[in-house]
Every structure is written in C-alpha cells, then in structure tokens.
Amino acid sequence: MADRTSSSPRADAAPTRSWWGWGDPAQALPDAECAALAALVPGAADTALPVPPIASLELPPVRVSAPRTLAHLVSGDPADRAGHTYGKAYRDVVRALNGDLAAAPDLVAFPREERDVVDLLDWAAGADVAVIPYGAGSSVVGGVEYRAGAHAGVLSMDLSGMDRVLETDRVSRAARIQAGTLGPGLEAQLRPHGLTLRHFPQSFEFSTLGGWLATRAGGHYATLHTHIDDLTASLRVVTPAGVSESLRLPGSGAGPSPDRLFLGSEGTLGIITEAWMRLQDRPVHKASASVLFDRFPAAVDAVRAIAQSGLHPANCRLLDPGEAALSGVAAEGTSVLVLGVESAHHPVESRLAELVALARDHGGSPADGSPASGGSAAGAWRSAFLRMPYVRDGLARMSVISETFETACTWDRFPQLYEAVRRDVGAAVREVTGAKALINCRFTHVYPDGPAPYFTVIAPGRRGSEVAMWDEIKAAAIRTLGEQRATVTHHHAVGRDHRPGYDRQRPDLFADVLRAAKRTLDPAGILNPGVLFDTAR
Amino acid sequence: MADRTSSSPRADAAPTRSWWGWGDPAQALPDAECAALAALVPGAADTALPVPPIASLELPPVRVSAPRTLAHLVSGDPADRAGHTYGKAYRDVVRALNGDLAAAPDLVAFPREERDVVDLLDWAAGADVAVIPYGAGSSVVGGVEYRAGAHAGVLSMDLSGMDRVLETDRVSRAARIQAGTLGPGLEAQLRPHGLTLRHFPQSFEFSTLGGWLATRAGGHYATLHTHIDDLTASLRVVTPAGVSESLRLPGSGAGPSPDRLFLGSEGTLGIITEAWMRLQDRPVHKASASVLFDRFPAAVDAVRAIAQSGLHPANCRLLDPGEAALSGVAAEGTSVLVLGVESAHHPVESRLAELVALARDHGGSPADGSPASGGSAAGAWRSAFLRMPYVRDGLARMSVISETFETACTWDRFPQLYEAVRRDVGAAVREVTGAKALINCRFTHVYPDGPAPYFTVIAPGRRGSEVAMWDEIKAAAIRTLGEQRATVTHHHAVGRDHRPGYDRQRPDLFADVLRAAKRTLDPAGILNPGVLFDTAR
C-alpha cells in the first residue's frame, strides 16, 4: 500500500487547494508579479523560486497501513501527503518550495462522519500512529506539522468532508454545525435562514469551524466578541477515551466551563466534530468613517477612549504611519483609524457620530467623504485583506522574508511594547539580513483594557537561508513579546512555533494540568504531539 | 487546645455577622414581623423558632491542632466554628436554628497574607486536614459545608482578612485585588480612582471577590457581561502543589484559558488569593422604564427581541404575573418588564427609547411615568432586593419552606421549561406539604440565545420536617431542570446540593479531567472535598 496511487477519498466537491502555498492555486501571483513586488524591497532576489511539480517531490516511504475496514477513508496519494505536510507559515511555504517534505504524514484520512473519526482514532491509538487534526491547513504556527519523531506512523485527519449545518434554531439564533465546514460553506448554509455566524478571520475561505474552535480564532469584529470562544454554545469532541458533549446553554455557572478546556486545545485533547454556535441576524444598517491623526500616540489614546466607551464598534482598525503608507490611504507620517458600526435592527449613524466625536476629541480629523455608508472602500479593503497571503507567497518566492505576528497587552504597556518591537525586532533583522526592516503595526482588535497589535515585518532574505533567517527573526519577536509581558499570540494559536513564548507565559501548573488532561483523554499520546506542551513517551 | 476560648484571630475591623442566618444580625426580622409575614402563607406556623444562644450549642470536639507557628492564625472558638459550619441555604438556616452543628469545622483560620495560606495548606496536606475555602459564607448550595467524613480534621479557611486593593492601573482600568475583599470594601477602595467593578450580586454586602470568582457569580448587569468570568484579567491561586499566576491580558488565544479552569472550581483545585479585575468608569447617565404586558408569552418575546437587538441594556428584568403581584408593582395577571440603560460616557435616553419601542412592538405598554431617569423606584427595588434574604430567614423561623433556584436555557426551550417547573415542582410541593405552592418566575439575565429564569417557591412546612421537605422539593426542581435540558445553576454554583443535577449535566469525561486536575494540584485531596466531583480516598 506504500504505492497507493488510486484517486483520493476526499470529497469530490472539495475545492482545489494549493499544496505549497495559500488557498486557491489559480490566485497565486504570476512570476512577473512576484518580481514586480520584490522590486519594492531593496536587496531582494530578482528571480522567483520555481514551484516544484508534485511528481518531482521525494516523499518519505509510507510506514503504516490502515485496516481494511478503514482503507476507503485513507489516502497515501503523494498529492494528499504533500498538501498535508505543512500549514501556511512563511517557513512552511519556503520549505515546500524547496521540496523539503521529510515531515509528510504517512497517510491522510478523510472521515465522512463522526463514526469514522472514532474508528480512525481507535486504530491509531492501538497502532501508535500520531494523529494530526486538520481543518483546512491554514495554521501559521506549525500546528499541523508532525515533528515528534517517535511514533510508528503519522496520520493527518482532514475533517473537510464533514461540512454540513445539521440543525438550526431560528428562535434562539443558533445552529449545530460540523467541524469541517469552511467559512463560505457555513455562511451559505445559514443564509437561507437569515442568519450569520459573522466570524471572518483573514483565512475565512480556507479554514474550518473546527480549526477556529481548536485555535481560538479571532474574527471580523474589532470589539466585544472577537474570539470564536464567545460564539460557542456547546461542543462535541471525539477523544480516544470517548465522546464528550456539553449541554447547549446561553450561559451557565455550573463548574468550570467544559468548552473552555477544548477551545484552544489545538487538537491535543480531542477532535472537535461539531458545535452549537451562536448566530446573529444579518446586518442591514452599516456605516463607516476614517479619521486621520498627525501623532500616533494621540490615535492610540483615541482608540482607547473608544474601546472604553461601551459603544462597541464592529470595526476599529488603527494603522500606524508605516502601515497607512503601505496601504496607500494616507500621507507620510499619518495614522489612520477606520471605524465601522453595523446592526441588523436599528440605524447606526448616531453611534458612528459619537465614535467620530471621541476620535476628534483626541485630535483626529475625519477623512474626506467620511462618514460613509460603507460600500466600495470597505469592499476594496476586504479584497486587499484576503489577497495578502498570496502576496506573502509571492514575496517568499522572491526570498523576501515576511512575517506577521500579533499579540495583546494592557494599555499601560502598549507604548513601551511598540517601541521595543521596532527596536529589538528591527535590530534582529539588521543582524540577520544586514538590511533595515520594514516594521508596521495595526490594531486588529481592541478591548477596554488593551489593544491587540498586529505587526508586519518585511526584509530581504538570502536565497537558501530564508528559513534560518526567519527563525531568528521570529525568535526575536517572541522574546520581545515575552519581555514586554504581551501574549505570544492573540489569535494565531501556539502550535509548535510559538512554544518558546507560550512555555514562558502560561503557568507551569496549568501545563501540568493540561498534561494530566491529556493522560485522561489521550492515554496513548497520539493527538498532535508537541503542540502546547510536551508529554513523556 | 480543644478548649481554646481566647479571642478570635479574625481582623478587629471584621463586621459582626449572623452565625445562623443572613448577613447583619441587627437586620434580622423581629419575631412579630416573622409572624406577620407567615400570616400571608396559609398553613404556616404561628410562632417563630427561637434563635439558640451560641453558649447553648453543642459542638463536636476539636480533633486537630495547628502547629505552634500557625496557631496565631487559627481559632477554635465556638462562635467562629458555629458561624463557619454552613452557608446560607434554607436548609442551612433551619439546621442552625435547630442547633444541629455536627458538621462544624474543627478550626477556622484567618490568614492575613498569601504566605499564611501557603503555610496553612502545607500543614493541612501533611495532617490530612480538609480545607474549606471560605469568603463570607453566602453559599446557598452547601459549598462551604464539610460532608466527606473521611479526613482527620476540617479547617475552614476564612479569607476575609485579605481585603485590600493592592494596585490600580487607571489607563487600562484594572486593579489587583485580594480575594477576601467584600463587595462594599472593594467599591470603597476603587471609588477614589473613579473606577468601579460594578459587580453587584444579591449577596454583594456579604460575599467576597474570591467567592465570586470561585463560583462564577452573576452580577448586576442583565446582559452582555453577566458573570464575573468576563471581568477577570488574571488570577493568582495557591494550590497544595504551588502557586499559579496567569499573565494579565486584555485577550489571548494562547492555549486554553488557564483562568477558566479556576473560575467555577469552587475551591476544589486551589485557593484564589488575588485577581486582576477589569473595571469601568462610574456611570453618570442612567435611564429606566417599566413596560406592562397582558400576556406573559408576549413579554417573553419582547425580551428575546431586546436580548437579540445588540442594545445591551444594563437592566432587563421580566417579572411573571405572580412575581409582579408579589412585588406589588402591577395588577393581577400583568407581567412587568423593567429596563435600564446606563453609561459613563454618553446620554442613554435614545437607547432606552429604542428598547421601549421594541417592547411596544411586542404588545407592551409603558407604565405611567415611564421612561424615568432612575432614582427612587430603582432605589426602592434595590432595598427590597437586598432585604429578601432576611425575609427568607424570617419565613424559615416560621417553618415556611422557601426556595429560590435559577437556571438558563435556550429560547426555544423556555416556554416548556416554565410550564414544567410550575407543573412538576408544584406537584412535588403538594405531595410534600399538602399545600399549593406559590411559584413565581423572573428573568435575572438574558442572552441572545436564551434567558436565565429565577424561580421562587414558597409553601407552608411542618415544624421539625422543614429540611426533609425542602430536600424533596429541591430534588424535584433539579430533576425538572435536567429533564428540560436547562442548567442546574446559572449563578448559584454547584456546591454539594446541586451535585445530582451537575453530575447529569456535565460531560463524564470532563469530570475525569477535573479529577485529574485535582490529583495534579491537590494530591492529598484536602480541598473542599465533595464539591463538583467525588475523588477516591
């Protein structure tokens, strides 16, 4: 069976997906566009790394085989194995482009129903096969890549065949949804009911509900209910020890929340198969405005006042001067605050006016034509936002180092964090690449007690050393966040790449508890080993 | 030391507290008032049970003694032991009135700083002394009463000497607060900073921050951030295995939330010693209105529309016709919805108008003089609300059975739940007491996906059988909630009394995880045994 070349058992309707880079292969940047982009980065390569054909890839031999009763769910096809080797971090893309697929899983499973997940886990636990739960593979933290090296085999468990909304409750505005459902399919199935989850991470098209839940994904809303956690009414999880299902409730104070144990467990404790999610009516009233600031600290103060006002804007995105310049939305040195308000029920203009007034109180100037009722500017921004990962891939093909990292800290710490990142990560980039980094910042989410800043770092790399250079820069970023007592991640998860920061950040006793939970739920230690914590084997 | 009668080591400034009933002994109802109340309940007793003098109580002998280095923190005084035997459930009050104090702890400890908590736990773990964490003893679920029977001794750990706000961060609106701080002291210490926690459970005067955190208390706000959980930025917890402290963050997606493990752990995993809490500016704009409904189902629909509107009223309290009549606020058969809006930042009249319009759309009629700007009506309601536990004690002295239980369910289930509680708990009351129960309902909190209904049950009991009768009625209530798939508690915690419902409600695997967490953090099994789950000894 090592040479299994029959067609994959994945669902026929499954969309084509890039095996090496982001999303839809048809949207990858052509070589000329890659080169044009790289021309903007002094010191970048002038030819694009070629994408190797799948047939040319050297995959390690398949070491295990599924029992006959499960064979129809499992693929050893090279394309499936190559496509499930990595997530979509910069270092993943570069390694794939280099044809480095030593970490490929032996097999990829495509369960169609929960019973399949149970049976596959039963087999894997008995056969010492590590299981990597896989939604759509958009992890940027090494969350779906096996690195442990100690198991008899590795199975990537692709949930994308479990993609249905199973039940809706219109009166409570909730739905029971299978974990493998991708963002667009989820919204398409809710639309006839007039409902929406309104959880729009940047990966929306290429990530699943189960992935969002397992990684505590952050969505569209800038304030209030930012993480998927708060939209979750109950979870159903298959573990090697059995199935856990929580009671669907609007709120409860009965013991510690069982759902909060699995939210963020990143596949180490079980595989989420379905969830009751809290939904919303589709918004019909929308309004947005942009406000310009000469001084970034004044803009930060304005955002803090807004975050503490109780007005809960749907959008509250602050771009620092570098980010604003890169986006082409403002003159040199100007910070831009984009505000958006929406409601399914009542007009929102007066609330937007209150928000703009707060911004003005802190020295902001509403941009021309603002406030506006959304429309084309928001649409253009959304397109650019969804396009960014493809641009990152194009830069990777030009050996340009590109890294985004996001965090959260309290307001009292932010000014110091902002300076430290620019100073210390900038120094690391100079040390590693010899060049000056472009380091920009925006706020993706804001809370009454602090912002979630998102940093973009771009610098020219050396062909052949991209991964090593990226790793050093990433290490500096993680170190700086730890020194500043900011979280190693606000919504990108921990995976394997963020472990150095996470190990320092979380209470040691809590790691002991997670290990104890794992011994209880996954006694054979097969589920996503190395993510979040190490376990003795 | 069994006869230690020296003065208690509790703080001199500690307020006098009723040892048998609610709160301040000076506010207990005089006998005549008890009798007048009971006259409203056909079949009630006509004389009040006397309150036994402490000197007359027969307490079990003290079996253990603290080491010399800790003796100054520990009391074996009968008044301390009697006052720490029970919480404040109906059955607790009746047993205390009957002088039944067989469950009294051997000792009561009054730590003054975290080091004391560590040392006391070290001693207790080595001496097989069970430790019952105790804030101010307002538990109504047997949360502070030792029932396990298997330990060498029992220590009640009273945190009320650790009552300070240690640090404030005005810019992030947060404070680091010791767990033993009572509600009024907490607000008094925040007031000079212009800040407030604004968490006002009914027990506010006689409960502590640590108790709120350990039990996932519900506060003042009817919507949005109802539980203390969402106001918590980080926790510091002393466990027998060491101290766990989480990083203070406005939001994070780094692994499962460590705080959510301790929130609701009810003293079984560790003793919370301090927390960083998210605060708010003190509100200056307030407005409220009452709306009357002829039909309760229409009122429920109105509340659902409001809960799903995104308008987040601070108050949204719906009284069913029985509750409204008892409160004297409406004519027979009328349901009353009380709405309140408040803000520290912007006028709220337009938002109140939107809420009232929604209620009117569903058939509601604004009451005379409504909307109003708060003031006396709200103040009168608040006084009555805080007085209720004293009234309950007065009824207990007249052998009237009085039970309140609260829950939450999704909107689709509420109509059936409401009928089932009135039918099945009503039948149980008739069976047990031979009388027709008064069963009223109000919503204390509402969410987009469902309400938190709070039921009051009043019926005449038989002197000497009050506890047995109450237990049967409580069992019927718990059974009914379970059958209706409603939570056994929304904000009163599980303790020991709610175990039958909790054991049925929570996933079995989650209980296994909690036991594994306990083996990790409390290997000697001394912390609050029997709460939430059983452990092998």
UniProtKB/TrEMBL annotation, chains A, B:
Keywords annotated in UniProt: FAD, Flavoprotein, Oxidoreductase
Lineage top rank: taxon: Bacteria
Region (Disordered), start-end ranges: 1-22
Domain FAD-binding PCMH-type stretches: 101-282
Gene3D superfamilies recorded: 3.30.465.10, 3.30.70.3450, FAD-linked oxidase, cap domain/gating helix (3.40.462.40), Uridine Diphospho-n-acetylenolpyruvylglucosamine Reductase, domain 2 (3.30.43.10)
Pfam families: FAD-oxidase_C, FAD_binding_4
InterPro entries documented for this protein: Alkyl-DHAP_Synthase, FAD-bd_oxidored_4_C, FAD-bd_PCMH, FAD-bd_PCMH-like_sf, FAD-bd_PCMH_sub1, FAD-bd_PCMH_sub2, FAD-linked_Oxase-like_C, Oxid_FAD_bind_N
PROSITE patterns, per database record: FAD_PCMH
Protein family per UniProt: Belongs to the FAD-binding oxidoreductase/transferase type 4 family.
Protein name: FAD-binding oxidoreductase
Organism annotation: Streptomyces durocortorensis
